[in-house]
Each structure stands twice: as structure tokens, then as C-alpha cells.
Amino acid sequence: MAEETRISTAVEMPPNQIDLPIENMRLQSSPYIAAETSIPKVMYNVVIALLPVTLWSFWAFGLRAVGVMASSILFMLAFEYFFARFRHPHQEAWRQTLDGSALVSGVLLGLNLGPTSPWWIMMVGALIAMGLGKHAYGGLGRNPFNPVLVGRVFLLISFPAQMTSWKAASWLNRDADPLLNLDAVTSATPLGALKEGGWSKFLDAFSQTDLWNYILFNKGGCLGDVSLFMLLLGGLYLLGRKIITWQIPLSYVAVVALITGVMHLVDPAHYASPLFHLATGSLMLGAFFMATDMVTSPVSRSGQLVFGAGCGVLTAAIRLWGSFPEGVSFAILIMNGLTPLIDKWTKPALFGAVKMKEAKL
Amino acid sequence: MSSAKKTAGSVFKNGLIVENPTLRMLLGMCPTLAVSTSAVNAVGMGLSATLVLILSNVVISLLRKMIPEKLRIPGYIVVIATFVTMTDLALHAFFPDIHKALGIFIPLIVVNCIILGRAEAFAGKNPVLLSAVDGLAMGLGFTSGLLILGMVREILGNGTFFGLQVLSASFPQVIVMILPAGAFITLGLTIAAANWIESRRKNA
Amino acid sequence: MSAEPIHATGQPKPQVSPRIIAPIFIIALFSGLALALVNSATAERIRLVKEKELNDALALVMPGFDNQPAMEKIEKDQGKQGRLIFYPAKKGDQLMGYAVESTVFTGYSGEVAVIYGVSADGVVGRVKLLRHNETPGLGSKAGLPGFLNQFEKSSLASFRYQVKKDGGQVDAVTGATISSRAVALAVERGLQDLKLVVGN
């Protein structure tokens, strides 16, 4: 959708020199052919991709997860309308509210929260995401940072107690979560347990449990962390529908695997295996659904590779040596900030342009 | 501000509102962001800076014909540093709690650009009385900016107002507000509000 | 060639005229005098303020002494492990015990310092968190009486200074295990070392 500009007679031209009906001339920037994709189409495809993990989290955590998700979406839509209404008449604000972007934000925020989050966590998160993360910059398309992550990091820093007290997944066999036994009051996430005790101690705690069944379907933590399998299903759907490109997820995941793999080889007793790092936390949720946000990631394919690799380096560094157990949110936000620079460095040559070196010959 | 007619009143209004150092000129951001974690700290910092500002403005205005043009900046710095050090010692002796809370930021008033800025822009060119008024107004403008930030951050981040519990303990404290990130967020929103009020005033 | 001496840099020698230097010299002179005056007027008070600060902390954890513990303090710097300062508290000639200032660097954000009283027979009295950089609202809760009171009346013989998660007896602050661990460690290290110093 190209932006349209009408030439205003008042500014550019001395009125008596030209007698063409200027009101009918339009200046339009490229592209001239509009693709079939539209914002709602992209957004509703993302929602479809997030559906499996969302439904699975409802099954695993029960009604509380439904409440978290519903209130997250409701608050997100409400604040989207509220802030859009500041700058637009009702009709336009209402259209923006229903274009699907706020719905995706709501679902993603819900997936980034624990099932025991009180209602005001969703309210503050949506308020910050929409107010500071999105509309302070001018709405969808102008925000330099992923709004959901802005909201989530604000919550994480402001309310660490509420944001890091997890409930074990699977209301069916809650006693089976070995992490519950490590800490009687609140269950730690696998990454949290790793940070506290190191890899070998973590494996001891899990010696009696099927680790992979746990990770693929039953993990405690945020709603979106519960099942790796369902997340990957959604990610593959987005790739298949060409909503996202493979560059960011692949380079992100590969770099995390590389760094954690090297460290695991150096000290296997302390550093966890790279597979574990790929499978836990919100890495896959981040790599497929949040780092790939079109507004806040680079445009060119090579830029996307750089972006993903940068996210990978930061995530691995925070997980291995930082004070937080998980670094996906921070990593993506920092790389969001670098996106304009990456875009500048990786700007593709204009069609027909000659490189400086060749031109001199 | 035009140099045609300066009255004590116009100088005062200029410092407090029109050219408010914190919200309009964005001067002295470092102490603004760092010590506005509570209203008491904000007032302590603001009044210390005001005191230094008045004294240095008066002395520099008195000496303005004596200080040679080429060496005026070193001259100003010596005068300002002297008053800052005096303030630091006096606070340590008589208000140890405030001194402890403000810590390194008291000696750093020396490099607060509001103070050198007013010396250069105003006190070096204007008579003593007006310079004193300018110092007072700029200082109060700085204090009021700090106080707004301090109050918002203290209430949201700590649930207290000047140390008194105003939000019940069950009300969740927004910890980020008393961290550096909260300082930037609050400052940005406060400046936005100031700009909004200003534009409404102009359009009205 | 002129007879004027050429400056090392090839530049003409900067003019140092007394008319420029004199005012600055006078300003500096008066500044110095004023500062000396203010300093001498406040020095005694500042010394008292500092002394009172320490004595208040000491009186809180080790009430009832009548000597000057700060004059007889024993300092032990153990590098990366931490730092210990023992203040002997005496009533008359009788040694009541020690106030121990113990610093460790294992907090969530580095340094954690506690001060606490230990009676002559090795039992802990009041504990106070002196300095820390822990997360406000989370790790900082390790400075509240609710957490610190559990160390009262404990001793090396009767108490394991580790959080319950690590097999000890300390109830950690929810969500702030690392901060709780650091405080417990600080208390324990002081006690261990005191045993070596005084041999009880």
C-alpha cells in the first residue's frame, strides 16, 4: 500500500503559471503494484499459527490459562483503541483495533506470561505495550521495538516476584514435575533451575523423568513455553504460508546452538547441552513469532541473517553468563534497536547500479 | 528572551516556566535522572543546586567587570566549585541523611550545566540583583522539574509520598520506576505533557 | 631573525600579563580562604556524624557497651572472599562480645554487607543489612526483619547457615534465593572467623 500525496497548490507552485487541474494529479511512490498481502491477512495467519500452543496451554494449565489469555487480548484491544483514538476519529481507530495486530499482540503477551498472573499484570503489560511500545511512536509500522516485548520486559523488571513464580504444567500429573520438588513453594523453570544448580545437578533432578516428554509437551513456565512441539508446528505453518522468512529463525537458533555447544564441550558438568538450550525457555517462541515481526526486523535477507545471529549471540550470552536465566526478550529488543543500522549496512544495490570499484575501471 | 527590558518579574517567570531548565531546556539531565528516585531526594538536590546557583550568580555578577574575558570560564568554575564544596560540607555536617542519599551528586553540581550555563548566559552580563533572581528562578525551575519526577517515581515505585505510605502494601510496586529506566520513561512522559500544555496554551 | 627567544613549539611565547592573572589569582585566593574557613567550621561536626553513624549501627546490634569499639577494631581483608571487621564491645573491663561487619561479593548484584552482634559465647544477636545492590522489592527484602530475625540467637553449633534449598535451615526470601544465600554466607563467614580469632 503506497502512500499517496496530493500536490498542494498553496506551497509548491506559483498559481498563475500553471493552469492544469492540479487537484487531479497524484504523486505516488513505488511500489506501484500492490501485493495481495494485507495487514489483517498476515495477522490472522499468525493467530492461526499460535492456536495449537494456545489451546495446548489451556489443556495443560486449565482455566487460569484461559483467563490470562482472554484478559490479555481484551486489554490489548481496549488500549489499542484508546490510544488510536487520541490521534484518529472513531472509524479509523476502530479499523486499526480490528486489523489483527492488537489481537496478535494480545495472544503473544498471554503466551509470555505465567498462568498464575493476576489480572492487573495483563492490564499493565497491555498499557505499556500499546502506549509506550506502539502508539508513542506513531502506531503500527512506526514502532522501533516489538510492543509485546516492551510490555513484557517492563513487567519482568517491575514485578519480578509475580513474573517469576511459576506453576507446574500439566494439572493431570502435577506431582510428576521434578522441579516442584526442588522448591516447595514455586516451581522453577528449567532454565531457572539450570542457573541455580548447573547442568549435572539439573540432570540428577530429572533422572526419574522422561526429559523429552516433559520438554515437548509438559514444561512449566509461561503459557507459550508449555509445549515445544506445538510451537514448532505453528512456526512451520508460518514458514509454509510465507508469512515469515527462514533467515531470522534459522540464524537465531543456529548461533545459540553454536555458542552453547562450544561451552558444553568446554565444561559439560556446568553448561547444558545445546539441544536443551534450544528446547527450553521462550527461544522458539521468540525466534519464530517475535524476532520475525515485520516492523521491527530488517528488510533485506542478508540483514535478517545478521539480525538473527545478533539475537542468538545476546540470548546465549545472557543465559550463560548473565544474571537472568532467560535472555530472549532482551536480545530481541536490543537487536530491534539495531535494525535501522542493519538496514543501512545491508541496503541492496539499486537495479542497474554499478559498484564503485567497477565504475572506476 | 529579549534583552530590551528585564524586570525581576520577567526574569523569574522565565526561569521557572518559559525556560524551565528541566522540562523546556533539558539541562542538567544527569542529576535529574539519577536522584529523582524519591521526592525528598529531589527537593534536597534541587535546593542544594538552587543555593549554589544563587550564590554563584551573585558573585559572578559582582566580579563580571573584573574577570578577564579570556579566562572567564576558569574563573566561573573556581567560584562555582567553591560554593559546591561549601554546600557539600555543610550538608554533611547538618543534614547527614540527605547527604548520604545524594552522595556523589552533590560534588557533581559543579558540572551541572545549568549553573555554568546561567553564569555564562546571564550573570556574566547582568546586574547583581537580577542575577540573584535568575539564580533563584532557575533553581526553583530545576527543583520543580525534579520534584515532579521524584513524586511520580516514588509513589509508583515505592508506594510512598515524601516517605509516607500512601498506597496500601498490597498495591504492587512498579519497581522499574525507581530504576534508571523508570527515570527515562517518567522524564519522557513529563516533557511530553509539558509540550502538550504549551501547545494548547499557544493555540488557545 | 629577531632576537626574541623562540618557544619550543615554534609558537610565540604566550603572553602572561599580570592584568589577566591577577584577578584569577585573587579569586582563587579568596575561594581557598573561604573553603578553609568552612572546612574548619564543619570538620568536627562531620567527624561526629560519621562516628554516630557507626555507633548507631553498633548499638543496634550490640546494645549496652561503654567503650569505643571503633578504636579497637580488627580488620581482615580476604580479597575476593570478602571483608571482615570485628568491633569488640566491652562494658567496663568485661568483654560482652563483638559486633561483626561482614562483606561478601556473592549477592545478585555483587557486594552484600551485614553487621551483627555476637555474644562472647558465640550466639548471634541482632542482624542488620548495611549495604547491598540487590533488586529493589525482591532481593532487597533480605534486609527486612522478617528474614533477618531468623538468625537471632543462632550459633555455629546449633544452626546451619544455608538456605533450605541447599540443605540448611535458612528460609530464603521468595524469589530471591541468591540474595538470601549471600546474607547467610556473610553471617556464617564472620562466625567462622571469629572462632579462629578468639578461639571459642
What's the gist of this structure?
By secondary structure, chain B is mainly α. Helices cover 68% and strands 2% of the residues of chain B. Chain B has a two-stranded antiparallel ribbon with strand order 1-2.
* Strand element count of chain A: 2
Mean pLDDT of chain A: 81
* Fraction of residues in H or I helices of chain A: 55-70%
* Number of domains as seen in the coordinates of chain B: 1
Structure annotation, total helices of chain B:
8
Strand residue percentage of chain A: under 5%
The shape of chain B, in one word, is globular
**N-to-C SSE series of chain A?**
EEHHHHHHHHHHHHHHHHHH
Strand order of the largest sheet of chain B: 1-2
Strand order of the largest sheet of chain A: 1-2
The chain-level mean pLDDT of chain B equals: 88
Q: Helix amount of chain B, in percent? A: 55-70%
- The helix count of chain A comes to 18
Question: What oligomeric state best describes the polypeptide chains here?
Answer: heterotrimer
Helical/strand content category of chain A: mainly alpha
Give the CA-based shape of chain A: globular
Largest sheet of chain A: 2 strands, antiparallel
Describe the protein.
- The complex is a heterotrimer of chains A (361), B (204) and C (200).
- With 361 residues, chain A is mainly alpha-helical.
- Chain A has helices at 39-61, 63-87, 90-97, 101-111, 119-134, 147-158, 160-163, 178-182, 190-197, 199-205, 211-217, 228-240, 247-266, 274-279, 283-290, 301-321, 328-345, 356-360; strands at residues 4-6, 26-28.
- Helices cover 60% and strands 2% of the residues of chain A.
- The two termini of chain A are 40 Å apart.
- Chain B has 204 residues and is an all-alpha fold.
- Chain B has a two-stranded antiparallel sheet.
- The mean pLDDT of chain B is 88.
- Chain C has 200 residues and is α+β, with helices and mostly antiparallel strands.
- In chain C, 35% of the residues lie in helices and 23% in strands.
- In chain C, strands 1-2-3-4-5 form a five-stranded antiparallel β-sheet.
- The interface between B and C is medium-sized, with 25 and 20 residues.
